[in-house]
Amino acid sequence: MASAIGDLHRSDFEPAPGNGEERQAFVQMNPNRTQIREPPPPHELNGFLTSEDALFQTLHMGAAEVDEDKWMLVVDGIVERPYAITLQQLRQLPSKTLTSFHECYGSPLLPPKKALSRIGNVRWTGVPLHSLIAAAKPHPQASFVWSEGLDRGKFGPVEADRYQKDLPMDKALSAEVLVAYQMNSQPLGRNRGGPVRLVVPGWFGTNSTKWLSRLSVQDRRAPGPFTTTLYNERHPADDPECESRPVWKVQPNSIIVAPTPETNIHGPEVLVEGWAWCCDSKGIGGVGVSVDEGQQWVMAEIGNREDFSWQRFRARLQLSPGSHVVLARARSPSGRSQPMGEGRNHVHRVPIVVR
C-alpha cells in the first residue's frame, strides 16, 4: 500500500467498515432541496480561471453538511484490501493539481435541446483516484468504480438515500481523475461538495460526485437512480430508435466572450474571441466563425490547452456596416462538430452592429 499511496503505511488505515459507518459524517441537508445557480452571461466569462462566485452551481438534492472529524472515505468492493481513510490522512498523501473545464449537462428531466452555457474552468487539487484504487488491489474482473455521496433527498420524481454514480475502470484509472479537496487553491466549501469530491475531467459534472464517502470497485454498473433512471440520453437526441447511452463524455462546445451581444463596433475589422472545449485528451480540433449561418467559415487561432482546460480561440472578421449575427462552431479532433440547431451544445450566436 505504501508504494501506491505514498509514505503512509497500511497500519495507518482502518479496515473498511461494513455497516455504513462512513455515513455518520452526515449532519443535515442545507438546503434540503434542488438548487441551481446559473452562471453569468458568456461575455463575463473572459478569464482563464473561473472564480467561485462566477461558477455555476448544481445541487440535485440540496447540499450536505458534513462533520469533518467523522468524515472517512471507504474503498471496498471486489478488492483484496478494503480500507478506510480519514480526511487528515487523505491530505497527507501525494497530491496533484490540474486545470479542467467543468460543465453541467443540464436537467436529466428535460430533453437535451437547450444550450445552457453552464461552464467554467477551474483548478483542482487532490489525490489521484488510481492510487487509491490500486492500494485496495482490485480483482481482475473489476470493471467499474462506484462513487457515493453523503447527500440524500428528492430530485424531481426520484427519491434517493444517496447520490451514486459509476466510472468505467479505464476512466477511473486515468491520470486526470482526482479525489479533490481544493478548488482554485481553496478548501472545497459545502456547496462545492466539500470536504471531498470526485473530479472527472473531460466528462460532465454529474459524474463528479460531491460529498464523497465511498468508492466501491465492482464488476457491473451502479444500480442507483442517477445511473439507471437519470442521466442517460439517446444519440442523436431526436432519434427514438437509437440506443440510450450514459451521460459521460463532453461533446465539442464553445462560447463567444467578445464582442458583447448587441454592441456597436467600429469596423470593418471585428475581433471574435471565446472558449472551446471537449472530452478529447488532445483538446479541441478546430473552431470556425461565421456571420452567414455557416455558409462560409473563418478558422480561428486556438490557444494551448493546460491539462483538460478550455482553450482560447480568436478570429478576425472583415464586416460591412450593419447588423450581423456572429456564431462559433467547435469540432473535436475526430471531426465531430457542434450542431447548428437543436441540441444541448448547439452553436452560440451573438448579434452585433458594425458601424
TrEMBL record:
Entry's Gene Ontology molecular function annotations: heme binding; molybdenum ion binding; molybdopterin cofactor binding; sulfite oxidase activity
GO biological process, one term: sulfur compound metabolic process
Needed cofactors: Mo-molybdopterin
InterPro entries per the UniProt record, alphabetical: Ig_E-set, MoCF_OxRdtse_dimer, Mopterin_OxRdtase_euk, OxRdtase_Mopterin-bd_dom, OxRdtase_Mopterin-bd_sf
Oxidoreductase molybdopterin-binding domain segment(s): 61-225
Keywords recorded for this protein, A-Z: Metal-binding, Molybdenum, Oxidoreductase
Single GO cellular component term: mitochondrion
Region (Disordered), start-end ranges: 1-20
UniProt name for this protein: Oxidoreductase, molybdopterin-binding domain-containing protein
Organism annotation: Neohortaea acidophila
